[in-house]
Amino acid sequence: MDSGQPPFTTNPILLKSLLAQVGQGALQLPDFQRGWVWDDERIKGLIASISKGFPIGAVMTLATNGHVAFRARPIEGAEETAAGKAPTDYLLDGQQRLTSLYQALQHPGPVATQTTQGRPIKRRYYIDMRAALEADRDREEAIISVTEDGRQYGAFGREIVIDLSTRDHEYEQHAIPTERLCDEGMWVIEYIGHWEGREDHPDGSAANLVMRFKAEIMNQFALYQLPVIGLAAGTPPEAVCTVFEKVNMGGVTLTTFELVTAMFAGHGFKLREDWDSRRRQLQDQFDVLRGIGGEQFLQTVTLLATQAAKRQAQAAGVPPERVPGVKCKKHDVLRLQVSEYEEWADLVQIGYEEAAKFLHRQFVFTHNNVPYGTQLVPLAGLFVELSTQELHSAKARERLEQWYWCGVLGERYSTGTETQYAVDLEEVATFVRTGESPRIVREASFNPERLISMTTRNSAAYKGMFALQMKRGGRDWMTGEALTQMTLENENIDIHHVFPINYCEKREEPIPYWLYQSVVNKAPIDARTNRSIGGRAPSSYVPNLKERAGERLEPILESYGIDVQKLERDQFAQFFVARGKKMLEWIAGEMGKRTDADVGALENAVRNVRDPVDPFIDGA
Questions:
Q1: Is-contact 259 240, C-beta < 8 A?
Q2: Per-residue pLDDT tens digits for 586-618
Q3: Is residue 493 part of a domain?
Q4: Residues 196, 337: one domain?
Q5: CA proximity to 405, closest of 595, 596, 580, 589
Q6: Kind and range of the H or E element at 403?
Q7: Does 474 lie in the same domain as 487?
Q8: 455 is in which domain, residue-wise?
Q9: How much is the average pLDDT of 298-316?
């Protein structure tokens, strides 16, 4: 924005001037704004407020000749007069009020509104002149709402309570149409003429009533001003997005994706249609991508577009301090050009497909089990940045997996993700190519106590441990076969308790909730096996498993780090420490971190657990 240009101005503008701009098409809506939804009662209240000169709030506009270009559409009711006109301003806030007022005060036809229950209706509005001039009467009682045919019906829709279906009926009941309030047209003259020569006018003189009504009511509409906050042409896109997030509560919630969609539409590109097509292709093929939205897709595109701009600047010899960075924060996404999107979108779609295949290799097969959907943004970008040849070697794949697991188990994608995306795109690509460790790998760590506090799927690390148990060689409890996506689906495998909840809670010495719910006491188990386990003690269900699996049972359980003998003896404490140690070894292997599998925290956690056989002893 120009430093000499104020970011916005606040000016009072005559209501009739604003409504004229609406009718002329000078003031229009961004096309993403939803239709107006004010009901009949609120419209009557709005008319009553203006008739008394009460404030109804400010409206906000944005000049059309600036950074933000939307596809515009006329305000409802002004389509015939405004169609095809180029607006000078977009209406950002105040749509429902101006639409209601335009239709009620300017548009000659009925107002399309709704009941308080949301049923669509059409209404015409009048003011009872005599009632409006009664000092002790609620002004809203003077606002008359009738059906499209000019009548107001009783409760059952049969009896006509008010009939304003003809001009003579209007004159007889002193009811002026609201579209006549801002001018002194023929209605007033004809009203006086209708009563001329008659002595039965309730106020003695039609002219006297009209003069009083004009002075006290009609002048309010003619002179009414609305404060208009006008955003200058140089207002940046992120500021416009903030307006919709903070101000336009009654309108559409404008996300970054919605705003980019609107801006692209101003250049003739239908982003939503393009993304919907890509989304269907991605999500129909890969369930793990069902959590990916248009905004994440745009972030990956922006990462790659800004990286290309950086390389171009470096190749042109631009001084380092002036070289743009790789980034994808909101304001960066909002600066994305249609040409940049078209250049990168196909490659990014392929990047997400490769990211989904990568997740499958980490034994993550459904969107509910994706640890961090956010981590897919740089992951997809990396599959675009790195060539197939570069990722062909086992060493390259191993490095990419190490970064992934450091992010998941180090829980590095909880906050500050946009900055992390940019860092990772560059540093992880270098890591894969040269072996130079990125910051996320160098700094990631895992505290053994974290195993104890992982209790629900809300934790990314918990989801990671579910997948890791399978990736590290876990086998199907029924068949002993290595797990695959098909096995998981066919056998309905999910994460279940090894020491069942019922057993843990009903022991003579109950096991604390926070221990038996820990991920250490959970493993991927098929539905049929889990039903056979029920709520029984391990010493009760292990013999049944042995009957079914025979000699295969011990290696199957060992593939999950479970000691069969500790199960057979119901030794929860020893089982917990031994399996926790095994999990720490798995974690160290994936994160590439040296560890002595410190089990001190695990031993302390189970110190007070007394098992039926061989209570826990230090050093056991």
A1: yes
A2: 999 999 987 666 788 888 888 888 887 766 654
A3: yes
A4: no
A5: 589
A6: helix 394-409
A7: yes
A8: 450-605
A9: 96
